[in-house]
Amino acid sequence: MAHQATYDYNTHQQFERSSKRGAETDVHRGIILAGVISMIVLTAGCSDLSVSVANVPANRPVVPTRQIPTASPTFTPSDTPTMTATASPTVTGSSTPTATPTATLTAARTVTPTPRPTTRRTAYSTRLPSTATPTATVTPTHSPTVPPSDTAAVVSDTLVFDRSTARHPAPILGELVIDATVTGTIDADQPSVVYTFEGAEGDVLNIYLNGTSGNLDPLLLVLTSKGQEIARNDDQSDQVRDSAIIGLELPETDTYMLIATRFLASYGFTTGGFELTLNRSSGNVSPEGFFSTPLAFDRPVTGLLTAVQNEQFYTFRGSAGDVIEVSMNALTDSLDPLFGLIDNQGNLLITEDDRSSRDFDAYLNEYVLPADGYFTILASRFTTTDASPQNAEFELMISLVGRENKAGELPIDGVLNPQNSRTIRADSLVFTSYRAGDMLDDAGNELRLQSLMTWLLPQGIDGAQVDAATLYLEPCYNFGQGFQGLNDLTIYQDNYGALNLNRNFTRPTAGARIITTQNDCSPVDLTNNVIEALNAGQTTLQLRLTFRDFESNNQADYVRFTDPRLRIDLIADE
């Protein structure tokens, strides 16, 4: 795969930009996904927010429904993690009324990036959490009084969402009639469920998804019968995590789908009961929620980010094996773009931030779509904590650069689990970007950094179908002495498990094995590792990237992997 040699990306959360912008010092800052996450996020690139893994809210990775860049995350110990979108956009799902985003088609153009002022971003740091399950008591601002109806849903044990672009299609639990309420449960075994309803063109509806038990942090999506997203909401407000879409006008007569899930969807940790209500709007309300705009290949659109609407959603249709490129260019000098790619069940696939160390426009290069159907791009910005959001215009374009499936081959881009992939420091502090080396803490102590990556393996195939599997670490950037001072990078296969457990993740686990050592960011052959994992029935491949020796020189020396990719090539059909 041909990555741009200078592209800087931070999956689901960004990290430091001070070095990228010319400073040699190591300034941390924070970001965590949202939105997207709702998962753009889930979280992507340029800055890095250290977070408590167990309590992911308050600053989350880039995921649907929250503003990808996390501007000022607030960790509330008693609350389940609610993140605002971060770059690994922290998408903040604000419930402030927002009109349907307008996107204007413009002629294709080449945007020459202009340097934007260097802004210090503050990193928010927390240690790995205890195993205590956070609980949150939230009083919804919208509490529909429609009584539950025993006939509201016709339950089906066999139907699944067959137009899903997610790895695991959600079950369709039944049909929801207007002016009725149903209840259900979201948990690790069933992170998303679907209800259908019949709607007529011009109907104006209000939809509420409220958590009723546990620590559930709801996320609500509305799709057409074809699987095209038209609206979503994560948090009604900064204080209320329940989801509400108000004043949704249906574009056509159709059988619509309501996706009831949780923040970070299948990657999320929150669980509990929910109540889903659908009713007619009085018509005299301001729309609330996030409304998606259709996007076509090679047809650039312009969009606007504001203090109220700090993310925009764009939905397009693709096919399994399509190789795409996405660019988000700033048309306003103050904008630092960030975006995430999400499937139509709300799962973040990848987030992207800077095109290079000197070009802060966001760019995704040669990504292979995993399924036929609709996907959503969450367009946002890397938000700083010391500057209020400003109105900013951007240009977004998606291009189809190849169709690998036409040759009978289907290369697959692995998905990094945004909640279980982090940089971890020697004092157990975790960050949302990917670095290996060392950095200085606030007291000036030099501490080791390691990258932990959990790659989701393709489902429905076995090792015999794998032709090759390659880990791409370029582009990467040296900070301080980088490789020159750190010497060889060691890459382990290390089954470290789930980061939300209260144990030490700073050392390789028993049974970890070295895959290779190297003194640059050359591609790593993981073919045998992937084949063995698939044949053993494993669903993930976990890696640890570390420099086992580093020089103590009272400065930060590390290598940053801005766009790690796992590309799996399947054997061509005969």
Q: How would you describe the overall organization of this protein?
A:
With 574 residues, the chain is an all-beta fold. The strands form 8 sheets. Strands 27, 28, 29, 30, 31, 33, 34, 35, 37 and 38 form a 10-stranded antiparallel sheet that branches. Strand 30 (435-440) and strand 31 form a beta hairpin. The two termini are 24 Å apart. 56% of the residues are buried. The model is unreliable at 1-156 (pLDDT under 50).
Task: Describe the structure concisely.
This protein has 574 residues and is an all-beta fold.
Give the helices and strands, then pairings.
Elements: E1 12-14, E2 43-45, E3 67-68, E4 85-86, E5 89-91, E6 104-105, E7 172-175, E8 180-186, E9 193-199, E10 204-211, E11 218-223, E12 229-233, E13 243-249, E14 254-262, E15 272-280, E16 290-291, E17 293-294, E18 301-305, E19 312-318, E20 322-330, E21 337-343, E22 348-352, E23 362-368, E24 373-381, E25 392-403, E26 412-413, E27 415-416, E28 422-425, E29 430-431, E30 435-440, E31 446-456, E32 466-472, E33 476-479, H1 482-486, E34 489-493, E35 513-518, E36 524-525, H2 527-535, E37 540-547, E38 557-561, E39 565-570
Parallel strand pairs: 1-2, 7-9, 17-19
Antiparallel strand pairs: 3-5, 4-5, 6-18, 8-15, 9-14, 10-13, 10-15, 11-12, 11-14, 12-16, 18-25, 19-24, 20-23, 20-25, 21-22, 21-24, 26-39, 27-31, 28-29, 28-31, 30-31, 30-38, 31-37, 32-36, 32-39, 33-38, 34-35, 34-37
